[in-house]
Design brief:
This protein is an alpha+beta fold and about 550 residues long. The protein is built from 13 helices and 24 strands. Among the domains are: about 120 residues, no CATH class; about 260 residues, PPM-type phosphatase domain (Phosphatase 2c, domain 1), CATH 3.60.40.10. About 25% of the residues lie in helices and about 25% in strands. α2 runs antiparallel to α6 and α7 packs antiparallel against α8.
């Protein structure tokens, strides 16, 4: 590899032809040149927790909330300075720095507490663990205990957070990393790597350090969750959004409420094997539903329901998504009850054939089904004490003879995506934001920033209206489906991240295939973006 220049202020590497640092504009001179050092695009801030490369220096990572910085705070000296007899070349990660050794060339100097350094030295000796070779260890009055690792193997290697990985590459990377974890566990050692510890060279995994090594206690297993989290920046959102929510949770940091804090190597391997089987053998199914609690909730208040059959030798499909109003009592119970009542009512209408031939038949049936769900939730007599009575949004779709009929209350949505890639939002949110914009009483920017922007103006259940007051008045629309495509119903747990029809269409096209594969992909993308709410989708592939 050719020579590179190193910024004396922030440690960012640059091509030898550069005259200024791309990160901070500092002038680069020929004296700041090192040879055979693999260039890292460190001008982009990276998160030491999840590997995300976005945000500003010293800001919070938008993915996991950790503090991110261009230069790790533990860097013991600026490039060109001397430490423990070595010349500092560039920052690398938390607790290590790239240095020059006159005899061995570029090295990684790792430093820390005596016990941690001793445990890491023991882990580095494990055969077939793919670690950099340990040159020596020692102590320094200023630095403390340290290890010197030979970095020449990194020449031509690429940090995994900068590699272009296919889904097959991703699975191979995970297997290699879990193999290292298994080898360490077999020697009675734990391991907690950082995203900066992994490189690829010609598809082969190189592990820079045995960071976080320590002796496992009696009966204790290595926590594979801590290992897999270091791969998030390389695998999410792409290419691993095509896997499963379980694998996405395995990769995401543990700030979420719906992921266990520990996972064995065998359990992680089983999750990956199941995901690979689904990716390799994805069926071209026509109807799928997936309801996920998200990452910030410890329970689900969404519900989905589907039905499929034939009426008069013509296929029909029923799709229902409900989102319980979180400020109301037993919101999840209300959503579950409403979704099942709407589904059963529309399925019965389709199978009976009554009114199917009428132009308004499906529209009337959808409205009746939603009103029936309202009555059922009201009659459930949920004890809500001094709190708000139950309420839930609902969006229901009935597809028959290439005609789509959609009814809704609240802000759960229906999108239609044609095979050609055209997209349409088939619903209009019953929200304060939409009504304020329709009246023209509030400027768009001000309305979007309002704390009431997502406040609902309609829902079903006693939170909206009791039975005696006349019930609810759902909005219903009907339209023909001119050709093949995908119908997507979802809660705001998805559309908060991908609100426009074009964004939903892009996701559907990116995954393609059957309804189940698309449903998993949509949920995984929402989780990878933050998963701030329950995420529920129903997908129907129309041919």
């Amino acid at each position: 590899m050719g020579s590179v220049k190193i910024c004396p202020l922030c440690g960012t590497t640059a091509p030898d032809s550069s005259v200024t640092c791309q990160a901070d504009g500092t002038a680069l001179s020929a004296l700041a040149t090192a040879t055979t050092l693999p260039a890292r695009r460190s001008s982009v801030p990276w998160c030491p927790t999840c590997g995300a490369r976005e945000g500003e220096a010293l800001a919070d990572c938008p993915r996991c909330g950790s503090r991110i910085s261009k230069v790790p705070s533990t860097m013991p000296g600026r490039p060109g300075s001397k430490i423990a007899g070595f010349t500092v070349l560039a920052s690398h990660g938390d607790g290590d720095v790239l240095v020059a050794d006159p005899a061995a060339g570029p090295c990684l100097l790792a430093f820390g507490q005596k016990e941690a350094i001793a445990a890491e030295a023991a882990a580095l000796a494990v055969r077939d663990a793919r670690f950099l070779a340990l040159a020596r260890q020692g102590t320094d009055p200023e630095l403390g205990h340290y290890l010197v690792l030979l970095a020449r193997e990194l020449e031509g290697a690429v940090p995994i957070v900068e590699a272009e990985l296919s889904i097959a590459d991703g699975f191979a990377l995970c297997k290699s990393v879990l193999d290292v974890a298994a080898a360490l566990e077999a020697r009675g050692l734990a391991w907690e790597p950082s995203p900066t510890d992994f490189y690829l060279r010609g598809g082969e995994l190189l592990v820079v350090r045995a960071r976080g090594a320590r002796r496992l206690g009696p009966g204790e297993h290595l926590n594979a969750k801590r290992v897999m989290e270091a791969l998030a920046g390389a695998l999410l959102p792409e290419p691993f959004s095509v896997t499963t929510p379980e694998v996405v949770r395995l990769l995401l940091p543990r700030w979420n409420f719906s992921t266990v804090a520990t996972c064995t190597v065998a359990e992680a391997g089983a999750d990956l094997a199941r995901a690979r089987a689904l990716v390799d053998d994805a069926p071209l199914d026509h109807l799928a539903e997936l309801c996920d609690p998200g990452l910030r909730r410890n329970h689900a208040e969404d519900a989905t329901a589907v039905a499929r059959g034939s009426s008069g030798d013509e296929p029909f499909a029923v799709l229902v998504v409900c989102d319980g109003v979180s400020s109301s009592a037993r919101a999840g119970q209300a959503a579950t009850l409403a979704s099942s009542v709407v589904r059963d009512s529309l399925a019965e209408f389709a199978r009976s054939g009554d009114g199917m031939a009428l132009e308004s038949g499906a529209s009337d049936a959808v409205a009746r089904a939603i009103r029936a769900a309202h009555v059922a939730v009201c009659e459930a007599n949920v004890d809500h004490g001094s709190g708000a009575p139950p309420g839930t949004t609902v969006v229901a779709a009935f597809v028959h003879r290439r005609r789509l009929t959609v009814g809704w209350l609240g802000d759960s949505r229906a999108y239609w995506v044609t095979e050609a890639g055209d997209a349409e939002l088939c619903t209009a949110d019953h929200s304060w934001l939409n009504e304020a914009l329709a009246r023209g009483s509030v400027p768009v920017d001000e309305a979007m920033e309002s704390p009431f922007a997502h406040a609902l103006t309609k829902c079903l259940g006693p939170l909206e209206a009791n039975i005696g007051s006349g019930g609810v008045d759902p909005e219903v629309r009907s339209r023909p489906l001119a050709g093949p495509g995908h119908l997507v119903l979802c809660t705001d747990g998805l559309w908060n991240y991908f609100p426009s029809p074009e964004q939903v269409a892009e996701l559907v096209r990116a995954r393609g295939g059957g309804a189940s594969a698309i449903a998993r992909f949509l949920v995984c993308r929402a989780l990878a973006e933050g998963g701030g709410d329950n995420v529920s989708v129903v997908v129907h592939r129309v041919e």
